[in-house]
Amino acid sequence: MASNAQLIKFDNQVAGHDRILQFSTNDLMVIKPSAQTEQRFYEDSQGDLEFRCWIPKCYGSLHAATDSELQLLEQQGEGLLEQQGAAQKFLTIDTQHLCLENLLNGFTRPCIMDFKIGSRLYEKDATEEKIIKMKENAKGTTIESLACRIAGMKVYDTTKGEWGIYGKQFGKSRTVDNMTDGLLAYFFPTSSYAYEEKDPIRTSLKDDKATITPKHISSNKMEWLLECFIEDVSSIREYLEQNPNIELIGASLLFIYEGDKTAADAVWKKMLEEDKKEKEVSNIVEKKDEDRENEEQEEEEEERPPMYDLRLIDFAHSSFKSQQETQDTGILKGLDNTILLLEECLERQKKEKL
């Protein structure tokens, strides 16, 4: 364990029971308590280069802090652990922790949605008590009907300078009939869809550092984002169907997009400049020069802040099964319905001019 870093609570967690932390010195990674199953899943995924593109990077694991390390952390943090009770509990009780890529790094005001996929929520060797509990939790929710569910959301209304936070009750209250409305609340946080739900399902949090703008993120940008998400979910669905050895149980899709209008406009401008530069490149170039130019462009792209991201997360019950010949139908159904829901969001955005 690093002795010169302070651990603080990660404030952008929108679902789950895990106590996720991050280092106070940077926001490049998060520290998540994990079971052996999840650690093994990340280890096994290292041999699958294409699948690794769809999950957070894993930088390794940490062990539980010893008493002396806790004392050192408390001294160096000037009471940090006393102030962060969750952090102390995390370090003393859990024995294994994963260091994962912070997918929100680079965003100014990220809009986040944890979206559960699949109808199977427990492993084959789960206890009867666990099976009953998980079935009861899914009863009457869109997990039963659509094999997917909104687990939690955090959105930013750039016209009011405030965050909207939707807890798990919001997702559980969705039905087949109003599921799309729930997604529209995520993608269009300045619309009426985002304000239909009252406390305690939706809570508001003022952003004191925000610069309020009278306009929301433009429709053409949001249309592009929806098209990108549809394409990415389709790619994930295709890959999982072709690789049935990847068994996902209780996993989620994590949707992220830039919710700050000023930041989104700046990223969009940069993207257009890159596209223009790429089109201006001559087709008659020596191979070595072309390779060098491609490398330079890749470096530029890495430096540009992200406009959106989509990853699979939460693998506490997932694994690689070498002998599994067909992909779980619940996962495929959940992804198919996710695509249909996103397509409906796109259609309604155009129709309602959101």
TrEMBL record:
It comes from the Eukaryota. GO terms for biological process: inositol phosphate biosynthetic process; phosphatidylinositol phosphate biosynthetic process. Keywords: Kinase, Transferase. GO terms for cellular component: cytoplasm; nucleus. Residues 279-308 are annotated as: Disordered. Residues 292-303 have a biased composition (Acidic residues). The keyword DNA repair does not apply. Residues 279-291 have a biased composition (Basic and acidic residues). Its EC number is 2.7.-.-. GO terms for molecular function: inositol-1,4,5,6-tetrakisphosphate 3-kinase activity; inositol-1,4,5-trisphosphate 3-kinase activity. It holds the Pfam family IPK. InterPro entries: IPK, IPK_sf. Belongs to the inositol phosphokinase (IPK) family. PANTHER family: INOSITOL POLYPHOSPHATE KINASE, INOSITOL POLYPHOSPHATE MULTIKINASE. This is Kinase.
